[in-house]
Amino acid sequence: MAASVPPTRPRIPGSGLAKGLAVTLRTMTKKTVTEQYPDVQPDLPPRTRGVIGLFEENCTVCMLCARECPDWCIYIDSHKETVPAAAPGGRERSRNVLDRFAIDFSLCMYCGICIEVCPFDALFWSPEFEYAETDIRDLTHERDKLREWMWTVPAPPALDPAAEEPKEIAAARKTAEKLAARQTAEPRSEPHADEQARAAEQPTRPMGESKQQTDQPRQEGDA
Fold first, then answer.
1. Which of 6, 105, 130, 177 has the most Cβ atoms closer than 10 angstroms to its Cβ?
2. What is the pLDDT of residue 68?
3. 204 pLDDT higher than 60
4. Exposure string over 148-174, b if 16+ CB within 10 A, otherwise e
């Protein structure tokens, strides 16, 4: 047996229009707030994706950001440089030197993948967004321009007091505590200076003689 369908109320003509007009009337009675941009800058959240800044000292030219970029808008050039040995007899090492780091913001879709995959924290988001250009070629920011954006990067938010200690800080603290405990235990394990001097003054018995023979005085005429 089929279930009975409850009867539907007849729709009043013009009810949808009345609801829409009610929303309009409620909005008309509210005070309008217009931000006077550009005279008054907007208050943007600190994690706004405006532009990318480059902290060049942290960049190791690993090329991860350029490889993971879905738009291929990051251009990196580098060369290898030989570093002399730090100690005599050591081995020379080679390191990558950054020659060019550029981002084409006319192609960038602000996904943030390059910032997420950077293992050395060389890229950061800045909330600045006023860098429109009349020439599209000027939207390619070289490393000098990207470094200037670092001055606009906001400070990171404070950690939650109830949050766990970061693993890096915890590992460094445990290593420092072990090193301090080892340094404090080393002087206790060394013998005292007086004991060392007393041990040096005691005569040593010749090899091949027992303790009883060395304790007895030698008689005259013994060979």
1. 105
2. 96
3. no
4. ebeeebeeeeeeeeeeeeeeeeeeeee
Q: What is the pTM of this model?
A: 0.59
Evaluate whether 94 touches 81 at the Cβ level (below 8 Å). yes
Please choose, from the candidates 64, 61, 65, the residue with its C-alpha nearest in 3D space to the C-alpha of residue 103: 65
Q: How far apart are CA 160 and CA 166, in angstroms?
A: 11
> Closest Cα partner for 205 from 196, 197, 214, 218?
214
Q: How far does Cα 158 stand from its chain's mean position?
A: 15
Q: What is the pLDDT of residues 35-74, one digit of tens each?
A: 888 898 888 887 899 999 999 999 999 999 999 999 999 9
**Quick count: other Cβ atoms within 10 Å of Cβ 31?**
4
Distance, in Å, from the CA atom of 123 to the CA atom of 60, rounded to the nearest integer, reads 12
> How many residues does the structure list for the chain?
223
Per the DSSP assignment, residues forming a β-bridge with 223 are none
Side-chain half-sphere exposure of 94, counting CA atoms within 13 A: 5
Residue 78 has phi, psi (to 5 degrees) of -155, 170
Encoding tokens for residue 136?
Answer: 């599209």
Residue 166 has pLDDT above 70, yes or no: yes
Alpha-carbon gap, residue 52 to 192, rounded angstroms:
62
Strand order in the sheet with 74-83: 74-83, 93-104, 140-141
Contacts of 55 (CB under 8 A, 6+ apart): 121, 122, 123, 124, 147, 150
- The answer to whether the beta carbons of residues 67 and 84 sit under 8 Å apart is no
Q: Taking residues 158-183, what's their average pLDDT?
A: 83
